[in-house]
Design brief:
The structure is a single chain. The protein is mainly alpha-helical. The chain folds into 2 domains: about 60 residues; about 35 residues, no CATH class. The protein has 4 helices and 2 strands; from the N terminus they run βαβααα. The chain has a two-stranded parallel ribbon.
Length: about 90
C-alpha cells in the first residue's frame, strides 16, 4: 500500500499514483481537513479517466462541533502554515 499525503499540493506526482494503480498497488490519498472540492475532484479524475475501482472513506477524528470551532478559530487567527485562505462552513462540509 502507498499513502500520499496532501495529494492536491503535489499535483506533479500524478504519474506516480497512476503507475502504482496500474501495477495493482492500493493507494490511500490522505487529505488534510478543509481540502478544496476542486482539489478532491482532481484526484477523483485520476481514477475516473482510467476507470479504476475506488473507495472513499471519511474518518473523523473529532466531533463536528469541535472541527467547526477550530475552523472559525483558524479563519480568525490565520496561523502561518495552516491558513491558506478563508474557508466557509459550507465549503468545509
Amino acid at each position: 500500500m502507498c499513502v500520499i499525503q496532501n495529494p492536491a499540493e503535489s499535483r506533479l506526482s500524478s504519474p506516480l499514483p497512476v503507475r502504482l494503480l496500474q501495477l495493482g498497488v492500493p493507494i490511500v490519498f490522505d487529505f488534510r481537513p478543509a481540502t478544496r472540492r476542486m482539489d478532491r475532484a482532481w484526484v477523483r479524475s485520476i481514477f475516473e479517466k482510467r476507470q479504476l475501482p475506488t473507495m472513499c472513506c471519511i474518518i473523523s477524528s473529532r466531533p463536528m462541533n469541535r472541527a467547526k470551532r477550530d475552523l472559525h478559530l483558524r479563519n480568525e487567527t490565520k496561523p502561518e502554515g495552516l491558513y491558506f485562505g478563508f474557508v466557509s462552513e459550507d465549503r468545509f462540509r
